[in-house]
Amino acid sequence: MVGIAAVFQKKNLGKPWQPGAQPSTVEESPRPRLLIPSFARTVFLLVVVLGFTACGPKQTTSDEFPRHETVLIGVAWGEPTSFNPILQNPSWPALQNTTALYQTFFFFNQLTGELEPQLATSYQEFPDRIEVELNPAATWNDGKPLTARDVVFTYNRLFRIVPGFPAWQYLDSVQMLDPESPRPRRLSFRLRAEKPNPLMVLHWLTLNYVLPEHVWEPLLVAAGNDYNILSKNKMDVDPVGSGPYRMHSYSAEKIVLVRDDNYWGNAALYGGQRPAPRFLVAPLYKSNDHYSMALQQGRIDASNTFIPRIWLKARKGVRAWYDEPPYFPPGCRPTAFINVLHPPLDDVHLRRAMAFAINYDDIRELAVSGYSVPHEPGFILPFGPEARYFSKEDALKYGTYFDPARARAELKEGGYTSVFKDNELVELRDRTGKRVPTLYIQCPTGWSDWESIIRIMVRGMRAVGIDAREQFVDSNAYYKALAVGDFDLILTTPSGIPSPAEPWSRFNGVLDTKDWAPLGERMYANMGRFNRPGAPGYVPRIDELLAKIPVTTQPEERVALYRELNRICMQLQPALPLVYRPKSFYEFSTKVWTGFPSAASPTVSPNIPGEGPGIQILWKLRPADAAK
Amino acid sequence: MKLIRHLLRTPGFLVGATLLGLTLAIAFLPPLVMSLDAYQRVGLAYLPPTAEHWLGTDHLGIDMVALLVAGLRSSLYVGFLAGIIATTLGTLIGVYGGYKGGLIDDLLTACTNLFLVIPSLIVLILLSGSLQEGRSLTLIAVFIGCTTWTWTARAVRAQASSLRSRDHVALARINGYGTLGIVFLHILPYLLSYLFMVFILQTASGILSESVISMLGLGPYDSISLGNLLNQAIRNEALSDGAWWAFFPPMVLITVIAFALYVINTSMEGIFNPRLRK
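YS: structure for the whole thing
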């Protein structure tokens, strides 16, 4: 537009418009003539252009990462900043739940709910502790043995200095059980006596990395045991881990890992086989649709990003876990957290009115492309291992299904009046007649499925008379707003990582009051600040239930406790559960590699390579050419 | 009257006017004859065109015809508002500076040049990006108007300064007219035809600017405009799913409006400027 404007401007200036107007003072200057002959000019230009090209940054040649030796995955977002695994949110592959470079004790298989061996071979639960046995074959990438000493160092020295390290909420300390052995491998994870929660300790054993003492101890000493100094180390120069891949290189465009042919697990866990691809590359794109396009064109082999209408991509060789709806095994609950410290969101009538106003079928069919089963109120998944805790009877009695009439009734009961003009909502007024400020529902811009969810929520709420609007923000701003409570409503997924602690961890994510922080300070659970102890309307029973469920060993009692907690959530509506979603999306292309697991051959939990248990897929892949 | 007769005999003008009339009809006639709700879900995502829904549905299952009508209205609104603002600002600054001359003219010209070298699209993108809440179509129109007035000001200034030395202006000055009186009564009327064409160009440029900003995802996300429709089509992979009805019609509409306005402008130029008149 600027260009067009400029062109027209020049044109207008050059031509007088009015009869008798003065001719323009801008004279067209004659075209300058170059004195160099045209051939020499061309050669000169070529030399200049080639010179500039040679001066640029080193370009990656395709020979460097031959396609038939490389698996490309859509797993990482944003320019890599640091690969330091003690940071809360480092870049892939140091990011939590990645097991290519650093490893954890177990893989969590979300299909079976079982823990599968990784660094550890087995575990045993006791009332006050969990005992773990390490694989005796485990070594670091630099050849040194990986022993229980590394684990004790990682927890008792390294994780001690990390501020707010989440595992310490449930863990007291870690001890070696065979310290006198030349290669100690037995460990005891002691639970915190005041908050015994074996579920969460197992959860962290599937997520926390074990780091090498011989590398980190000198770093720790050099940093004077100061987290702020240690966390500044980017750990990007050939970091030592214990996984099947090592760092190769990284740039703003991609992160490259290279296979470690001496990986200890090849012999100990995979029958002497090594992973098929030599390189594991994570290209960095800007948004979901870029990953989708790359997958369809065979430029990446697997992705955990949201791809709408996956059935249309089948003709381009893109597949998901199932070949028919819901295409992915649903496993978590995207939820709109409600900031109850922003009045009148502390009013249960308004919160329930919102819950009744949302068209959950629209969200399922349109926003998430049908990758979900029909909505049931509450936070328990009514299918899979959690189905035993779900009560349809309670859901029908206390729950909120899409029902605009009941939404209006709740508003009326709360004393609200909605002002409409020409069928358009103008404003919502509270019982005193004061205008309720517009309620903004936040999510990161570019997360197209979440944006669509919010559009559907807004449409439903405005139709019943609640003044809600979309708010799409930069993802960094979103994460900050989520933690410090700078929102009215915000979309997030409580307990988004597959975990043996579910559904407790999901409830805890919505209701936890143990680490209460006022608005402006960070909270990592219950960001809606619901049920502050001591505040008017505080429900102590919620905290009691959250404390009791993890230590209950009787299955029937556990069912009753979960049922009660879910019932309270349905009645008080602390947040708005919206849809079911896969824990992470799992799409793959068979253009270059075959052998990806699917519902027909569920050899590995549905995670792409480079994400949790998905790394095991790399041993099962075969080049597509060989399969033909 | 003579000018209008000339215009009506110009094929370019006729084509442009017909196209513009057609887009205006699309924007304002359908709601009178059929019920259109740009917020009501009518089916699944990206349903192909049917007899009931001529252009299928978008990613949220909303009738594309309803969205296009609503989007076209918004885009026309933004375009015209931006056009009015840019033309008014540019004209006032240009005509005043051009007539006054001297230091005031130098200052205003410097100011105009300063604004002229600021890349307005980038400023627009930054402004839109920095405003998270409260982005609205009106605000976008104001932004566009306030960043694109510069070339109007320069062109008008050149015209005004050439008129300044005309006899009738000198006569008016002798008769005791003040600056404003001369500017409004004796200079502006001579520029009216030119200003009208400037306004048309500014409107077209406003519509295109809004489309670009909205297509980049920086427009008001709670309104429907043609750019927003394109943005949503890209975000929700209409292209790769072959849902042409989600992006092709808004694209055609934007092109047709801009084309119609430019053709009208060019043909008017041929009529109003006697040197170009055939």
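YS: worth flagging: The longest helix of chain B spans residues 64-100.
IM: good catch. Also Chain B touches chain A through 48 residues (CB under 8 Å).
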